[in-house]
């Protein structure tokens, strides 16, 4: 099912469309429920997921005057299989059933200067079906077109204990950190 509503104005400013999807399938995958908002205001076009049931927030905005694209994903105790499933890949997805994702990630790209930067604070909880004895991976990273810094990486579980951090400079292929 798909329901559309909204308003499109001749000047474009203030225009918006909401799309409510439920039980959408293409034969392989099924999206249970997803609500989207697309809007345009003051030379900024955006698309956002609006969820009341699932702990996920996604948004992307393009600023036509500066040529900036900003994309953000936030999740809190998010089980990806709750949103997307597949009858064709049922057994493979069953392994992901208890996978939990917590993230606050942002990517910014400027298409005028061809520059970008990103930042992510993420925790992934891997169930025993994916990693023997379960594991939790916790990392923070940020960077831009010149370098990547993994300021924190911890993997902890019954069968793993790992920590590291590093900085990598692309131009000189320079890597430094603690492994």
Descriptive keywords:
179 residues, mainly beta, 13-stranded antiparallel β-sheet, 1 helix, flat
Radius of gyration: 20 Å
From the structure provided, what is the oligomeric state, counting identical versus distinct chains? Answer: single chain
Helix percentage range: under 10%
Assign an overall shape. Answer: flat
E-strand count: 13
Compressed to H and E, one letter per element, the order equals EEEEEEEHEEEEEE
The rounded distance between the terminal residues' Cα atoms is: 50 Å
Number of contiguous helices: 1
Structural class: mainly beta
Q: Give the rounded overall mean pLDDT.
A: 92
Beta-strand content: over 45%
Main sheet specs: 13 strands, antiparallel
């Amino acid at each position: 099912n798909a329901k559309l509503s909204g308003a499109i104005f001749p000047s474009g400013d203030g225009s918006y469309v909401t799309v409510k999807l439920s039980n959408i399938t293409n034969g392989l995958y099924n999206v249970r429920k997803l609500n989207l908002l697309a809007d345009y205001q003051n030379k900024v076009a955006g698309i956002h997921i609006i969820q009341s049931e699932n702990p996920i927030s996604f948004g992307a905005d393009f600023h036509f005057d500066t040529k900036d694209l900003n994309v953000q994903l936030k999740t809190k105790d998010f089980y990806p299989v709750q949103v997307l499933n597949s009858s064709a890949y049922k057994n493979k997805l069953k392994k992901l059933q208890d996978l939990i994702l917590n993230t606050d990630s942002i990517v910014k790209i400027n298409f005028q200067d061809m520059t970008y930067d990103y930042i992510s604070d993420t925790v992934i909880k891997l169930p025993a079906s994916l990693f023997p004895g379960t594991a939790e991976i916790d990392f923070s990273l940020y960077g831009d077109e010149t370098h990547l810094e993994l300021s924190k990486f911890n993997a902890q579980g019954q069968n793993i204990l790992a920590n590291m951090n590093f900085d990598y400079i692309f131009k000189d292929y320079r890597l430094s950190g603690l492994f």
